[in-house]
Amino acid sequence: MNSGRGLGMPGLAWQLGENVTMRKRIKPFVRPAYNLSPADSMASDPKNFVFDDVIKHNKTKDCWLVIDGKVYDVTPFMEDHPGGDEVLLAATGKDATDDFEDVGHSDDARGMMHKYYIGEVDKSTVPKKRAYVKPADSNYNHDKTSEFVIKILQFIVPLVILGLAFVVRSYTKEKSA
User: Domain Cytochrome b5 heme-binding, which positions (predicted)?
Assistant: First the structure.
């Protein structure tokens, strides 16, 4: 045993029960690999899908997602997803890779993905960026006249009430005097 030389505290290594002169080899952190056989990790016959066919599966009872060019049928997982089925439904109809990565899923979540894998999507059919579609809102008020009137009334009505209170008070003071 070492008596703590080099630590500036004689006997410390003996008290801790360590051998200070022995260096431990530190292994770099490696993301755990999932040792799955090809039959376990992917569908037996992975299919190639066209993106337009994948986006049709956007309901609670039939939900497919595209993540990293792979198609996953997450219908059985809808009720068990920690974020709820709304999160999965919101990721349908597009490449959900960014949504999936932004959340920061655990290694366990990534390991579960193989159960839902059903094939690949033809990347040439996936739109690069979805075009913004302006929502059709029939109640939109372009001139905002009613909003302006409401704001004016919110200012004027309290002033009128305050003025009436002042008039009533001064009137009652004159009669009592």
Answer: 46-122
